[in-house]
Specification:
By secondary structure, the chain is of the alpha+beta class. The chain is 18% helix and 25% strand. It has a two-stranded antiparallel sheet with strand order 1-4. The chain is globular and about 25 Å long.
């Protein structure tokens, strides 16, 4: 399972790279978040993050 940490700069690179559209802006957090029910744990988001804010949990 991948999660987006507080290091997220809200650039949207992860959302654009997600093949199942499991990532969206979470207004409550003020950054992008991954929907665990939609995520297929492919790692595409982590590879596209310029600040390495996406980690496995």
């Amino acid at each position: 399972m991948y999660v987006i940490t507080e290091a997220c700069i809200s650039c949207g690179a992860c959302a654009g790279g997600c093949p199942v559209e499991a990532i969206a802006m979470d207004d409550a957090l003020g950054r992008y978040a991954i929907n665990p029910e939609t995520c297929i744990s492919c790692g595409a988001c982590a590879g596209g993050c310029p600040v390495e804010a996406i980690v496995t949990e």
